[in-house]
Write a structure and sequence with these properties.
The chain is α/β, with parallel strands linked by helices. The chain has helices at about 15-25, 45-60, 75-80, 85-105, 110, 120-130, 145-155, 175-190, 200-210; strands at about 30-35, 40, 115, 135-140, 165-170, 190-200, 215-220, 235. The two termini are about 30 Å apart. The chain binds magnesium ion.
Length: about 240
């Protein structure tokens, strides 16, 4: 089963209960691990900005039609098609769009345009306030760290405080899941992982294998086209937003 796409305000009592569970296992000596892109951050505002800037640079008004709701997966072709752009236009411009998008998306300058998922910073603060170690474990690489740190601070995530750590890839080329697997050893030295949130099925499955007793949560936004699905028994979180 595939994720249905972002729904940042899709509150429900089931969702509330899962958020309560995440908070309940936070305690001194515990480690809570949060992914960033597509997890506690909504990357769509960053992507819309990238499309708008390219539209302005090249005079490609077609790209101005791209809005947040058009991002349902990682395919830029699908995103543009969802925005009503013709298949012919996409086919003749896709390579240019992709190059521009990649140059901007994977940069420190553009991550500041992400929005925190509503309720996510509050959750991290609550987990931190209960004495747990908060770790941000991301597929972003070291070159993106300055903008990432700025975004964490500006949205009120616990950062630059005791018991808060940002782990980024040493190189852009490194596979995200491979990096997260190598990071597990360092995270284990911080304490016992009790909570792990990620929007990539392969990553939650990796974590569940390594930490079967932890509360591993699949955050349902978008994810890579890899064929993995979250293992049975892993709960899905639709949003960080509460019913009340
Ligand atoms: Mg992610």
């Amino acid at each position: 089963m595939r994720a249905r796409g972002y729904a940042p305000f899709a509150a429900s009592v089931e969702n509330d209960a899962l958020l309560d569970q995440i908070i309940a296992v936070a305690r001194p000596g515990a480690v809570a691990v949060f992914d960033l892109d597509g997890c506690v951050f909504d990357t769509r505002p960053r992507q819309v900005r990238i499309f708008r800037e390219l539209a302005a640079q090249r005079g490609w008004r077609e790209l101005c039609a791209v809005r947040e709701e058009h991002f349902l997966d990682w395919s830029l072709f699908t995103t543009m098609a969802n925005a009503g752009i013709s298949a012919g236009w996409i086919a003749s411009h896709e390579a240019d769009v992709r190059n521009w998008w990649a140059r901007c998306f994977f940069s420190s300058e553009y991550v500041i345009y992400d929005h925190a998922m509503p309720g996510a910073a509050e959750l991290c603060r609550e987990v931190w306030a209960r004495g747990a170690q908060v770790v941000y474990l991301t597929g972003r690489d070291i070159s993106m760290a300055p903008g990432t740190e700025s975004a964490l601070r500006s949205f009120g995530f616990p950062y630059n405080a005791v018991r808060s750590t940002l782990l980024v890839k040493p190189t852009f080329e490194m596979d995200d899941t491979a990096f997260k697997e190598t990071a597990l050893e360092g995270i284990a030295s911080l304490g016992l992982t009790t909570v792990y949130l990620d929007n990539e099925p392969a990553n939650v499955n990796l974590y569940k294998r390594r930490h079967p007793d932890a509360l591993v949560v699949f955050v349902e936004t978008d994810h890579s086209p890899r064929p993995d699905a979250p293992a049975p028994g892993i709960p899905w979180l639709r949003s960080f937003w509460r019913t009340a």
